[in-house]
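Session log. Operator J.P. requested a structure for one protein chain; no other inputs attached. Running the standard single-chain path with token output.
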Amino acid sequence: ALPTIKELISKGARVVLLSHLGKVKHKLASEDPEKFAKQIKNGNLAPVAVRLEELLGQKVVFVPTTRGEELVAAVEAMNDGDVVLVQNTRYEKGESKNDPELSAYWAQFADAFVMDAFGSCHRAHSSTYGIPEILNAQGKPTALGYLVEKEVVALTKCVNADEHPYVAI
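Structure written below.
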């Protein structure tokens, strides 16, 4: 996703990044708190923010929560070209269920949406489906990032290949 992020920064966008890492089984919170705590620790995106800062050569503000005053303050404090990385979206129970309230909460921070997670774009989650659905309804732009575009172009070549049969694994 770096080429897309860099392009957005170069155009002066205020980039709020939503992502996930691993799976979070919320029922473990009551069934096996120790295992749940380990999932949460392993899914923490704080180290991703550090590495992203190195790769971008600029400050990345990491918000260790997915909602609340700290996130609101971080977004409101942004200047053109700034980057904010929000904590793992899967920490939210409603994320994988495309919870409309959660989608609306995150959508409030966006003037546009760029999907650049090919491995997740097929999921109807709040961060991948709910937000762009809301923004589209509001007439705000949604787009594919360079990584997803590259995959779509490659798949289109397969589908439209002159040589048949064509096998993809």
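Operator note: The helical segments are 2-10, 28-31, 33-42, 46-56, 69-76, 100-107, 126-137, 146-159.
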